[in-house]
Structure formats: C-alpha cells, structure tokens
Amino acid sequence: MSLANQTILITGASLGIGAAIARALAPEAGTLILLARSADKLTDLASELQQLAGDASKLSIHAFPCDVRSSSSVTSAITNIVKQTGPIHVLINNAGLALGAPKPFHELSIDEIDTMTGTNLSGYLYVTHAVLSAGGMLKLPTATILNVTSVTGLELPPFPGESIYHTTKAAQEAFTNALRVELAGTNVRVLALRPGVVATHFHRQKVGYDDGAYDEFMQGYEPLQVEQVAESALWMLKQEEGVSIKALDVVPTGQRSLQVFDRSWNERHAE
C-alpha cells in the first residue's frame, strides 16, 4: 500500500527506533508528524528528513514537542495537528523508556516507576485515545495503528530491574489485542512490532549505564540496528489494506529467546 498520501504520526520520534522509522518513511510518506519531548532534537531531525526526502519531494514535516505522560498536552497537540494536516492515517506508538536497572522493584524510586508507567503505558493510551477521538482516524477509508512493543511483553526477562518495564510491555500487548477487537467494524488495522535487543542508548538504560554490564549483555552476538527495526515497520505498514501483519517479532539471530542467547554467534561468523 502506498504511503504517499498518508499523514503519519510517530511518538518518541527524536531518538533511536522512532527517528529511524521517521528516516525510513521520509521518502515514502506524504506528511510526517514528529512527537517527542525535546524540541531541539525534533528540529534537527526534521531538517535531516527534508534532506533525505530530496528537493523535489512534497513531504510535509511537522514537529510537536510533547510529553506523552500528560493527557492534556497530548490532546492539545493532536487537536492542533489535525487543524494543520487533516486526519491522521497512521499512528506509530513508539515512545518508551526503561529506568532503574539493575535495581529490583522494591529499590526503584516511585518517580522511576511513575515515569516508566506514564510513558510506556499511559502515553500509549493517551495518544491512541486522542487520535481515535480527535484525530479523524475513524472516518478514514483505511488507517493503521502500529504499536512498538517488545519481546519482553511475552517472555519474562531473566535479569533484574525489568519488573516495571516488563509489566508495561505486557500491558501494551494486551491493549493492542483488545483494541484490535474493539475496532472491528472500522477500517483501522492494529499491529504490534516487537523488537528484541537493539544497539541504542535504550539498552544502556535497561542494563544500567555501567559499560561492563552493557558489554557483557551484548557479548558474543550482534544486536539489531535501529534501521533494521525501521525496515520491519515500513514493511508492515505497506501491506495492502486487506492484510494485517498482526504481530511481528524482529530479533537478532543470536537472541534465541530472552533466556537463551547464542553467544558464540560472532565467533562462528567471524570473517
């Protein structure tokens, strides 16, 4: 399906997977709407995307600084977006974070817990609610909600510090499945993209900022690059409107499961 005339909203667009998806969509989409907390990073990304699209491109880019943890900010942003761009065809729920690792649950601060649940769960709900109620999506002949979840939503992580992150990702999976059923009778597809280990700042957050812990976590196999996750997202979105890739796990081959990592992968595939 062509995305050329589609208005696509990406949350958590300023870094990592969100920015990579925006880059992948720049040559494809008609309008890109970028949401994130950092205005400066959004401005830089918007400039980069315009260059990627090329001088002849008709791509329209709109950057809106917004903290998805605030329902009022989200509602205001979506209302303003629709006034400028018209209805939203595609929502990519990507904003997310992990804090506190490797501390166990009882050692996390309440602020760390609230920040993770507010971003990873409430943020998904607030943005989706606003897009469906004020974003004009339900009136469109075809529309898509793509939730970037995680393989940790289905498998229990084997390392400490993951209790809240895992809980929010499992909740995202439940929300995705329930929403897909609730939207029967509409033209909205609801999809889940589940990345495994990706080489970004995000996994430093998850395992802690200690370089030794991060290196140990990545030892022996190649993590995904954000561009590979973005390619998977693009493939899901471009399916014909009668086809839904309901859920897609994209993981490094060395990540056999969350409990089993093939740490001799690099050795076997050394040049």
Q: What order do the helices and strands come in, and which of them pair?
A:
Elements: E1 7-11, H1 16-25, E2 31-36, H2 39-53, E3 60-65, H3 71-85, E4 90-93, H4 110-133, E5 143-148, H5 163-182, E6 188-195, H6 201-207, H7 211-217, H8 226-237, E7 247-250, H9 265-268
Parallel strand pairs: 1-2, 1-4, 2-3, 4-5, 5-6, 6-7
Q: Care to describe what's here?
A:
- By secondary structure, the chain is an alpha/beta fold.
- The protein has one domain (7-268): NAD(P)-binding Rossmann-like Domain (Rossmann fold, 3-Layer(aba) Sandwich).
- Helix content is 42%, strand content 14%.
- The protein is built from nine helices and seven strands, in the order E-H-E-H-E-H-E-H-E-H-E-H-H-H-E-H.
- A seven-stranded parallel β-sheet has the order 3-2-1-4-5-6-7, sandwiched between helices.
- The longest helix is centred in the middle third of the chain and has 24 residues, at 110-133.
- It is globular.
Short account of what is shown:
By secondary structure, the protein is an alpha/beta fold.
Q: Could you name the ranges where pLDDT drops below 50 across 5 or more consecutive residues?
A: none
The helix tally amounts to 9
Q: Any idea what the CATH superfamily is called?
A: NAD(P)-binding Rossmann-like Domain
CATH class call: Alpha Beta
